[in-house]
Amino acid sequence: MPQRHPQPIVTVDVVLLTLYKTELCAALARREREPFEGQWTLPGGWVHADEDEDALSAAGRILKTKAGLESPYLEQLQTFANRHRDPRGWSVSITYYALVPYEQVKGEQVQWRAVDSIRSLPFDHLNILRTAVSRVRSKTLYSSLPVHLMPKTFTLSELQRVYEQVLSSPLDKRSFRRRIEELDVVEVVPGAIESSGAHRPAQRYRLKKRFDGALAVADRNLGLKVG
Amino acid sequence: MPQRHPQPIVTVDVVLLTLYKTELCAALARREREPFEGQWTLPGGWVHADEDEDALSAAGRILKTKAGLESPYLEQLQTFANRHRDPRGWSVSITYYALVPYEQVKGEQVQWRAVDSIRSLPFDHLNILRTAVSRVRSKTLYSSLPVHLMPKTFTLSELQRVYEQVLSSPLDKRSFRRRIEELDVVEVVPGAIESSGAHRPAQRYRLKKRFDGALAVADRNLGLKVG
Q1: Whether the predicted model's global pTM rises above the 0.90 cut
Q2: What ipTM did this prediction achieve?
């Protein structure tokens, strides 16, 4: 069957997010070729139809190559597909977002920038970035998503702080703890009690195994409007 | 810049949904060429890079050509992209879902089938269909989405019935009305009071202009668990 229409370019781009100090940051990678050679963009690349099994594995390959990451939390965001987004012609970007604890980030190929400080990017990457940040913030209100930004073990106060940093907004402690309990995604680390200085000793928690690459979703928000 | 990798096929497929009698139904179209020639699949086709502005307008073109629809509620669902879904090779399907009142459906090119009765479809279309139905049902719980299945004017009881039919589940009338009021998407049709037989006369409503192609989202569900 002959192809009667010119076919679009197919790429995968990834919004890789971490929390560095108190800021939600995105990874940018330097482009190695035209267009926009030498500029910083979202990590991405062509689909390699001869080696990638599917779009998700293309995203995984990109994260591994550009940021040394093995298996961060990775989810499809949206597809941006039109005539204008790439100077080379009609193009499709299947986009993903990934969350990773700062401790796991390796490699010097990416640069981290606070998402709210990024004002322009080549292609339509600013739009893709903002779509991802808005998705992550709205999911944070109703799910266990930010758990994937945490180190292996953490206290509930640390977890709440990460939620608050992603949202740039305080949460009510009692509602937050009640909802996290309902979500049933974390478990006590046996014997791991943290006692530091003036504070009461705090229990350390970890993500339950079955939520490794998964989310729990609440039917009410996690405390934002209650606080 | 030479392309070093073979490029995928790029198609757009649409899950077009309506409510017929009391059932959520999807439109199927007969394929005019191989693969699967003569079989019923989701309406879809190649992106025409030379005429489509973007993927959304490709979806609009497909709906217009195959179902005579001008501007139904249309939203991107997800992109299915892998080596296995199409016998012609690595392929991308950018998928959309559309909602339309049964009254607006034209043309004999599509066949309507109750979504819960469809057991197999060519390609990965059954998976796409199920993803769409699950998205529509979960959005129905928290938003004004099913309003786009309604005729121009309707009573609140008719609206509740449509929500219940999409969800296959009853809703609590008081919670439902309170949430619909909070969503602020419908307005009274002046003078349109329906009086039929034994029932109390019921006010007719219509969608507010600014929600024509849009959604209002609630922060709590619309009554399912309250009932």
Answers
A1: yes
A2: 0.91
Q: Tell me what percent of the residues of chain B surpass a pLDDT of 90.
A: 74
Contacts of A28 (CB under 8 A, 6+ apart): A40, A41, A42, A43, A110, A111, A112, A113, A118, A121
Final residue of a structural domain among A140, A172, A191: A140
Count the domains in chain B. 2
Of A47, A48, A81, the CB nearest to B94: A81
- Which residues does A99 contact at the CB level (< 8 Å), separation at least 6? A17, A18, A72, A73, A136, A145, A146, A148, A149
CB contact at 8 A, B24 and B106: no
Among residues A114, A140, A166, which one ends one of the domains?
Answer: A140
Q: Do both A180 and A80 map to the same domain?
A: no
- Domain extent, residue B199, equals 145-211
CA distance A23 to chain B (A): 26
The answer, for B47 touching chain A at a CB cutoff of 8 Å, is yes
